[in-house]
Amino acid sequence: MEHTPSPIEVVIRHYAKRYRGWIFFGLIFFLAVWVGGSVFYSVEADSEGVVLRFGKYSKTTLPGLHTKWPWPIDTVMVVPVQQIQTLEFGFGTIDPGQVTQYAPQTPEHETIARMLTGDLNLAHVEWIVQYRIKDAQHYLFRIGGHHSNKVAVENTIRNAAEAVLRKLVGDRSVDEVITRGREEIASESKREIQEMVDNFEAGVEVVTVKLQSATPPEAVKDAFDAVNRARQNKERVVNEARGERNRVIPAARGQRDRVISEAEGYRERVVPEMTGRANAFLAQLAEYQKAPEVTRTRLYLEAMEETLAQVDGITVIDESVRGLLPMLNLSSAGPPAKGEKGGGR
Amino acid sequence: MKTIVALVIVILVAIVVIPASTYTVPEGWQAVITQFGDPVRVRTEAGLYFKPPFIQEIHRLEKRLLPWDGDPENMQTLDKKRIFIDVWARWRIVDPMKFFQAVRTENRGYKILDDLVDSAVRDVVARNNLIEVVRSSNRELLYESEELARDAASSQDRISVGRAKMEAEILTVASVGLKEQYGMELSVVHIKRVNYIESVRTTVYDRMKSERIRIAKLFESEAEEEKNRILGLTTKELDGIKGEQEQRAAEIRGRAKAEVIRIAAEAYAESPEFYAFLRHLETYRKTFGAGTRLVLSTDNELLQHLRGPTVGGDVATIAPPGETP
To answer: What is the pLDDT of residue B302?
Structure first.
């Protein structure tokens, strides 16, 4: 200390007298350090200062430079109220850089992530909870059990988050947990975690709950994948069959229309053709009827001329030489039936 | 000299006596004051207080909510399922005097809770089926495929208690006498984790696997089913189209032929003889040609003049052969 208390002795008096100036100076210096060091304090832009007088809450101060009574009268605790903190569940990040590096899964992570679903199956869920301090006074003075408020409060949030997540997962099927229920679980758990920590007056606001991954356990992943594959395969097979159908049916319809058109074409052709021939006949008949005999003879002879000019040979046999017939060499002739036609009676 | 002595005494008093006769209770804390070891008073409000120096001692106790986090305990449910249950609770010291007398420190408080909560959990869990611990409501579970849903529906147990009620029950059981005996109060108990023990987990995995593989197989056979149905319908439709094609083509052609017949018949009916005559002539033209050799009798009408002139022969009566070939 600045002076040495001593028994009432001449020596002391002597020294005290001699060093009076020094003692005075020492006292002033001590006071300056004491006051300077504990009267001024600053609160960072993202924080609030909580001032305690003899340990009792007195006020909360905003960012900036402030004064207070020196220790031990006033003490101040600065709380980063604006900062958003992230808690990870079921996994750990080593380095949240551009390419986030995750810590290898530890048995502890595994235990946190493994959950029983409502159908008594198991799912593996990893998630994060982000929070910020919304009430510095509550944050500091309502949650205890650890010398660090941050640890105590985070421990509370962690407990709440695990209980809520498992409760929600326990009321859903494994399918819901790993697929369409994820959003709902996240938003519902945010609400319920908030409710729980509010009951504890933890002074924090849950900003986000996000399911990072929700999968079947490693051991059964293959089987789940097999279902997905089979479902996709089913879609593929069915699509192929539909494709095949779409390929052949229009072709067949086209073929049908083609054949029908061809039949119609046939009609278009043969009916007029016959009509033409019929009209030709009627025209000829009309003329024929004007002179039947001579026309008939003329037509017959003309036809015979034409016909006989075409044939290879004509053998004329008189009745008296009928016996000749067997001697004829018919080998070069056409089919006898044809030959007979002309001559047959 | 006298003044210096006085000053020294004052400073001594300030340094020794003031700290010894004042104390603070920080925010979030409370204090039990003992005199020669006997608790004499309690301070639950934060602030600066005075006491007789040297004879009284201050024991600070947490006023804040305190954590309690149990270890996973292996226990059995009513339906004989062995599970690990991990529970947490929150508590506070509500009667510092009693707490100080009976428990004294927070650490010993945790120990007391270890026993109380664990046995309460064991007690309540043993009276309920596993499903009651897991589920909180009878909310319908949804599945990705109807088959899984159908499966689940048959094995889905309805709950009558549920997790929230069980937690409340554990809280009640564990809280019995807690305040009266220890000056402690449990505010909540929550089940943190429920998990199968290792050996059961393997069978659960196997069950999950077989369930899924069955569904995968079902999808495969459904794929075949659907495919064959589509292909069958395709064949049916193809045959229908083909049939329609044949029918209409035949009808059109048939009607065309009928019309041809009608037109021909109408025209030729005017003079069947003349038609037959012309038709025969045409047939001769068409059928006789190169390679045909005719053997004609001199009786033939064509050659009637070969034997001698018979002018005025009745040509009409000697018509070319009447029968068609």
So the answer is: 73
